[in-house]
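Re: aspartic acid structure - here you go.
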Amino acid sequence: MIKRNILIASAFFSFSLGIAQQYGGMWIPTELNEKEMKDLGMKISAKDIFNTQKPSIKDAVVQFNGGCTAEIISPKGLLLTNHHCGYGQIQSHSTVQNDLLSNGFWAKNMSSELPNPGVTVDFIVDIKEVTPQILQGTENLQEPELSKKIAANIETYKKTQKIEDYQSISVKSMYYGNKFYAYVIETYKDVRLVGAPPQSIGKFGSDTDNWVWPRHTGDFSMFRIYADKNNKPAEYSKDNIPYVPKHYLPVSIKDKNENDFTFVFGFPGRTTEYLPAIAVEKIMTEIDPARIAVRDVALKTLDEKMRTDDATRIQYASKYASVANYWKKWIGEVEGLKKSNAVQKKKNYENSLAAKNPAIKTTIDQINKLYADQAPFALNNAYYSEVVRNAETLMLANIFSGFIASAEAGKLDEKGIASFKKRLASFYKDYNAELDAKVTAKLLALYANKTAPQFLPAGFAELKDENQNIINFEKLSKNSVITGRSNVNGASLSENIDKAFSNQENLIKSIKKDPVYELFMNMRNTYMKSADPQFTSLQTQIDALQKKYMAQQMETDKDRKFFPDANSTLRVTYGQVKGSSPRDAVTYDYQTHLAGVMEKYVPGDYEFDVPQKLIDLYNKKDYGIYKDKTGDVPVGFTATNHTTGGNSGSPALDAKGNLIGLNFDRQWEGTMSDINYDPRFSRNIMVDTKYILFIIDKFANSKWLIDEMKIVK
Ligand code: ARG
Ligand code: ASP
């Protein structure tokens, strides 16, 4: 029965979603499938989305601070992005007395908006394919000469382009180095915080609901771009004026219907859709499980402490959230790869390609051999990297090893030392040495148990017992200088960095004989000798074959329209508003409502508390124009748009290019879309514009912001 349902569902989707979209699609905005988009319901043209000759939608979409996406929604440079994208800025304006994370923040007028030094937004002014220029003279080159020549060609290309002094050019590799595209970028540097709901709205559901549908998070915050008096980029100045955009997005509060056309415009970070079956199998059965296992241990140990101690909870909140985010994603990814039969699907695809082009069989055979050869090294690499990343004490030792290497090579000047000290200070601020001694002890036991004998550092065979490790490592940690629990030059590194650094020679001498440092260096040196060189050299060979396999897929599969893997460049993905049936007897609706927020409400809970004001609005049903046909306020919705990390904050637009939602997540059953998009289960999750406006208007009483926007009713 399940099988039959799946068959029916996939036939239905490939019909209703169109041929190109069966693999998802993150399209370069200058190469859109206009016809398919129109067939799906789009009422505007590709030229309305991206145009260098006149204002188009791309003029309202920016990369926010190098990671997320944001969009302009008023003629005065008002910017919308996710709460989790603006989190760092909201946090940086917060104090215990004035906690903007807990209470939210709403500027009363422009002069009370808050500056954020260092925060930038990037506009894409132009996109050009520049493959011939970049690959010129590379025909017969192998690595490492190939990369050097490409880098030189990129430099030459950049020098020959005439751009304004407030613009820059970035050249990006696509299709694993088979093509290259140049982006002209304009970076604005005065970006001020305008508004953010309290966490109990902006982060409602927190880690429990993360990656999960049905979702009820109001994950948005607002900023404003400021410019100099000529509307050009400028460093922060109180004399700057609100940026006047070439285009801003009208905000729609129309009801949504299943199958409505929608597209998402933003900066997806990284996907790997064109891997061979063997690579997917390795991720699914070895690499992801290794990373998950390490984070399982780290998260569980932190959680025990965070639940009983408030100071630790606050200190580790942000770190915990970021470790938990990908931990949870990988678990969903493995499940989804299994359920979507990704490995077999890829194998079938390889066979069908090889039947048309026998050269592909040779490529796949070579790739298979390389992955088999690399497997033990790749597994050790996965454990080593994850353990060092999550055992903060080992991470500290790693940071110090870099410092000592630079110092001994005579490469450290005053400035270098100052910035190193700054880095350390920010590390120690959120580091609980005693708690991490436990995490590190457990992770060392895991490493000792999971590492094959040929990669096991001398003496690590004795670290396999977790409980014994906890006792032993606590002693090492207590006697260590780098943990800050033992003094050097008469001071603790975590309490008085300047004093601990007062005699640098002595500091380095002490660190070198520090028991924790010695243990880490033993681990590192063994890894660097027994695994890293082989891992890297095999990876270089795999990369070269992956480039070849990519080119072969493109020249052999003529019916398929290819899009390049995400690489943090501007893309358009499109699809339809849609629910899903991810499991037997389970059906998801495409829309959630405020009533669902109240269903999840747990008074005083750190994830599911609801602000009193919102409860009052709910009780009075004071919804104004923001309710939908059900009489309730829509909160979130899902669609078939193919998105990934970096798409957070991206605008979701309707057939006419009006804003209908704010992308912020994907549903768990479909997160394998980074490797194998499956139209049956892959859904992106957005906050409904009606909920955003409802919160701004009714909850925050900030009608002045609504008045700036163009509302489409
Ligand atoms: N999963 C979303 C993304 O990958 C949201 C992450 C932020 N929220 C959280 N609870 N950690 O970024
Ligand atoms: N939450 C992700 C982001 O921050 C989006 C995703 O992975 O779907 O970009």
